[in-house]
Amino acid sequence: MATVTLAARVAKLEKTMETLMGRLQPHEPGRDDWKKSVGMFDGDDLMKRIDAQGAAIRRSEGRKARRG
User: Does residue 37 lie in a domain region?
Assistant: First the structure.
């Protein structure tokens, strides 16, 4: 009797694990998934510094390109 109960418990556990593992599998991104990232760095000081440095690099490269 205990073996049947154990087998049933193992079967239930295996089914639960199969469900959980299925949830962990990567999925194809949706068309509008990028919208979730909009605004996620608002007010972040590190991102402000990164943006400022990127803008400085673009300005410098723009000046170099115009000079030839």
Answer: no
What domain range is 58 assigned to? 42-68
- Tell me how many domains the chain contains: 1
What pLDDT digit, counting tens, does each position of 32-49 carry?
888 888 999 999 999 999
pTM over 0.85: no
Is there a domain that residue 12 lies in?
A: no
Whether residue 41 contacts residue 47, with contact meaning beta carbons closer than 8 Å, is answered with: yes
Q: Which of 2, 6, 25 is nearest to 14 (CA)?
A: 6
Burial of 53-67, coded b for 16+ CB within 10 Å and e otherwise, reads eeeeeeeeeeeeeee
**Cβ 43 vs Cβ 37: under 8 Å:** no
